[in-house]
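Per reviewer request, we include the raw input and output of the structure prediction for the construct analysed in the revised manuscript.
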Amino acid sequence: MEGSFEIIAKIAIVLIALEHVYILWIEMFAWETAGKKTFRSLPDHIFKPTKGLAANQGLYNGFLAAGLIWSIFIADAQWQRNVAVFFLSCIVIAGIYGAVTASKDIFFKQGLPAAVTLVLVLFTS
């Protein structure tokens, strides 16, 4: 039976995955509506011409979410951990890069939650 620490780590992984599914939705399907509300620092006229670029970013967020969700269903505990560590590390790195190049908020909204979850995963099993 799994310990409570492992259950908390898995719940955190699912929450991080859901966040990235939400980002996918904004960037791929709602860039000109919800995207404008989310990315208020960008001028309104930029959304239509950058729709394709945003969709590409959304697709990458979908890959991150898919990897995290996949990690939950892997039967082998070591592989489950390895896959989760890989995808969480990708998100932490992207959060750091985003904070340096775009907005510090990216780290606090994406990188930090992934880093905390990564620590939880590393301390399980």
